[in-house]
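Reopening this ticket.

The earlier resolution said the output was attached, but the attachment link was broken on my side. Pasting everything inline this time so it's all in one place.
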Amino acid sequence: MRELLARAQRALNDERYTEAARDFQLALEGSQEREERFLALRGWATACDLSGDPVKALEIYLRAEGRSVEGSSRDELRVRIVRLLVYLERYKEAEPLADGIELSGRAPLEQIALHAARALGRIHDKDLGKAERSVSAGRAVVFENAFDRIQVPPLDLAALFFAEGEIHRLRAREIGFDPLPADFLDRLEARCQLILDAQSAYSEAMRCQDAHWSSMSGVRVGELYKDLHAELMDLPVPQEADTPERRRLFEGAMRLRYSVLLRKAVSMMQATVSLLDQSDRKSPWRKKAQEALDEIEETQRTEEAAIDALPYSRADLKAALQSLEAQAKQERMGQK
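Inline output:
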């Protein structure tokens, strides 16, 4: 049986995952010793994991974890289980398991994976404060080991960066405009900054070159701008916009501010795609980044056309924004 396990391990090391999975499964079926059965389960799960079958890998890792003894081997399995639960978006299950694993003594990438799992679980529970602390702790490990300076960062960073993007996205959604607040322009600027922060984090996740995280990040980037656009176009009209002309001017001013944000988004996404192009144009994660860029560019063209169709120059619209801002400041001063 030891010989069969050794053969399976050689196949695993040589990236012959189908062969490795078969031999580990045979060793499991033929072994009566606890340690051999544990090694066979762990190897079989690893082969499934590396071959791209996370559901099967998780199922077998859980069986192996049940046969392990307390100590470093069990914690190692639990880290792998946490990674798969996160990958499968089962954040609620991953968080308590990650919380139960001691961070000290674990490899830096394992620490990052555990911080990411904790953050995503807390985001799921809408506890953004605790999620931010988990992301901050994970970021500290990233910076300490300079993982963010690697052209293609390790995969464990993708979940952490995605969690960071989710926090910024949800913080942005907390800033609403209905009813129209007196400090509307300040709130709009804060919302736009959070959107840019979220996009930056999602772009970092895309750099890890994983189709799953890049697809999710690309979708999120698109949602950020769709949501903001829908809200801006549905804003209650200020009392000062009491004529059709003033209402059109207000709408145009909002479109202008949105188009400025879109230009920043296009610039950032172009930089992301350019970075990804340095590796492999044909990879799915690159395709998703390009799709997000294409969507934002199309939205930008639509907004620019809408602004051009207005009977106002961009200078008029900028002046309208400045007037709104000055008026809002006067109102706030009067309330003090």
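Reporter confirms the inline version is readable. The chain has two domains: 1-68, 150-336. The first helix runs from residue 2 to 13.
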